[in-house]
Amino acid sequence: MSKFSITTYTLGALFFLVSLFLSVFYGYKVVTHELPKEKKVQQKYKYHFVLVPEELDNEYWRLVEKGAMAAAKKYGVMLEYTGPKQANIDEHLRTIEMAAASKVDGIMTQGLSDDQFTPLINKVVSMGTPVITVDTDVSNSERLSYIGTDNYLAGYLAGKALIEDTDGKANVAIITGSFYKNHQKLRVQGFKDAVKMEKNIHIIDIEESEISRVRAAEKAYQIITKYPQVNAFFGTSALDGIGIAQVVETYKKQNQMYIIGFDTLPETLDYMKKGVIQATVVQEPYQMGYGAVKMMIDIINGKKVPSIVHTDTRIMRVKDLIANELGRKEDNQ
Ligand code: BGC
Predict the structure, then answer these.
(1) Is 268 in the pocket of ligand 1 (CB under 6 A)?
(2) What is the pLDDT of residues 78-94, one digit of tens each?
(3) Cα 278–chain centre separation
């Protein structure tokens, strides 16, 4: 062999080895997300769970994460919180698939739609990874349990609160996170059922926010422009009420508009204190996260868990918020 071909051969082999190393290294990283690299860190934990929300930086989901992290810390679980940065079903499904492929001990996620989530959840469970749905259920799937709000009831309670607060007379517009996601559909259905016997409550329009506060505001603006008769809004996901309130405040319509929203994020509470939002549906995201981790451990240890765990849901009005805050102040004195 000539000197030239030996050098070419050696360089070729070197190139091959370096590429192999890089693809194995990065391949490993992609599949296992942000797993701690050192074995020692992994050995500290008894279990490895993944929590996949519909939107990573959503303040509501940060509360679910907080609860899950607290339970993870207590029970020696390595918990990864990972998923789409902004709501995106394909990315959501891919994250679940990747978590299952990397053989985590359990996956906790929303069951956003039967069509897309049921087949994937069934596949993951049949391959040996338990799945718990959190906040939103796909009840026809093989998930082992659901923990979260009874979304139909939550919508129903919102409808009843609106009837009471408007003396049964309102032209309502609904802004919902999505027309297709299970929890949003149930909340809208519950609301519709609650008001359907009221002859002076009219649902004028239903629009979609894609769980974005900016889009909720855009839709609220279009509604008040197109339908001046609208004097009440129902926002069915955490940022919808906030988006609606921004528009109502900007156009100084707060005295003639009733708003009922969802969740108790700080901005919602601020709008309630200012009298722009009148009521909100309370959910327990922290409890959902905490409970999901605990149940997953039970499942892995062969304990029976209920197939549905409904966390508390109720209506909070401005007067309840003020009473709560006064109570808290007195407790601190
Ligand atoms: C829902 C979550 C949703 C969030 C969006 C909450 O009311 O329960 O599923 O992701 O709103 O902001």
Answers:
(1) no
(2) 999 999 999 999 999 99
(3) 23
